[in-house]
Specification:
alpha/beta, globular, 246 residues
Length: 246
C-alpha cells in the first residue's frame, strides 16, 4: 500500500515503551511510520491501529536487529510501502544486568548482538537509504556516566553506540544528513518499573535535581525536535535527556 504522505520514518522497538510513544509522536508530526517489533506482533499492530485510526499511516514489520537479512528486509518493506526513508530512529535494545566477575558470557554476547551489532546494522542500512535532509537517531543511555555495578554489558554496548553515531556523522559528510544519539536517564516505562518497590522508585527519582522520572513523552519530544527542521544544525551529538542525572 502506498501513501500520499511525503515523509516516512522507521522506529525500531516501537511496539512498546519509549519507541511506541516516539512512533506516535512522529506520526502526529506527519510521518508515515514503520513500526518495528522483535517478537510481539499484537503490540505492534496495536500501535499501527492507533496511528491509522488517528488519520496517519503505519505498517508493522518484524525483524531481529542483530540479523543483517532482517534489517535489510525492514528497510525493503518500508521502501515498498512509503517509497523512501527520511528518518530512522533506532530505539530497540535489551538490558539484562549481570556482574563482570563470573558473568554469563552468553548473556553478554546477546546484549552486544542486540544493542551494538543491531545499531551497526540499522545505521548501515540508514546510511544507504536516507536521502539528503534526512535524520538518523540512535538511543544510548545516561547510565554510561554512572558505572553502576551489574550494568557492564549494557554500558559497553551503549558506549559503542555513541562511537558509531559520531563516526557515521563524519562518514556522511557532504550529504546533509544528521546523525545523533539520545541518552535517556530513568524513564517511566513498564519495563523500568517492573519489580521495583515504591521506595526504590522514590530513591531513583531523587538521583536527578528535578526529582522525577522521565516520561516517554520527554524522549519523544526530543526525537521530534532532532527529526524536524529545527534540529538541522545538531549533528554528531549525544543529547543526555535525564533531568540532570548525569
Amino acid at each position: 500500500m502506498k501513501t500520499s504522505l511525503t515523509k516516512s520514518a522507521i522506529v525500531t522497538g516501537a511496539s512498546g515503551g519509549i519507541g511506541r510513544v516516539v512512533a506516535k509522536r512522529l506520526a502526529n508530526d506527519g510521518f508515515a511510520i514503520t513500526v518495528h517489533y522483535a517478537g510481539n506482533p499484537a503490540k505492534a499492530e496495536a500501535v499501527v491501529a492507533e496511528i491509522n485510526n488517528a488519520g496517519g499511516k503505519a505498517i508493522a514489520v518484524q525483524a531481529d536487529v542483530a540479523k543483517a537479512a532482517d534489517v535489510e528486509n525492514l528497510f525493503k518493506k518500508t521502501l515498498e510501502a512509503f517509497d523512501k526513508v527520511d528518518v530512522v530512529v533506532h530505539s530497540a535494545g535489551i538490558m539484562p544486568l549481570l556482574p563482570i566477575s563470573g558473568g554469563n558470557v552468553e548473556t553478554f554476547d546477546k546484549v552486544i548482538a542486540t544493542n551494538l551489532r543491531g545499531t551497526f546494522l540499522v545505521l548501515g542500512q540508514a546510511a544507504q537509504h536516507v536521502p539528503a535532509g534526512g535524520r538518523i537517531i540512535a538511543f544510548s543511555s545516561s547510565v554510561i556516566a554512572k558505572s553502576f555495578p551489574t550494568y557492564g554489558p549494557y554500558i559497553a554496548s551503549k558506549a559503542g553506540v555513541e562511537g558509531l553515531v559520531r563516526v557515521l556523522a563524519n562518514e556522511l559528510r557532504g550529504r546533509n544528513i544528521t546523525v545523533n544519539a539520545v541518552a535517556p536517564g530513568q524513564v517511566r516505562t513498564d519495563l523500568f518499573l517492573k519489580g521495583k518497590s515504591d521506595a526504590l522508585i522514590d530513591e531513583l527519582k531523587k538521583m536527578n535535581p528535578l526529582e522525577r522520572l522521565g516520561m516517554p513523552e520527554d524522549m519523544a519530544n526530543l526525537v521530534s525536535f532532532l527529526a524536524g527542521p529545527e534540529g538541522g544544525w545538531i549533528n554528531s551529538q549525544v543529547v543526555r535527556a535525564n533531568g540532570g542525572f548525569a
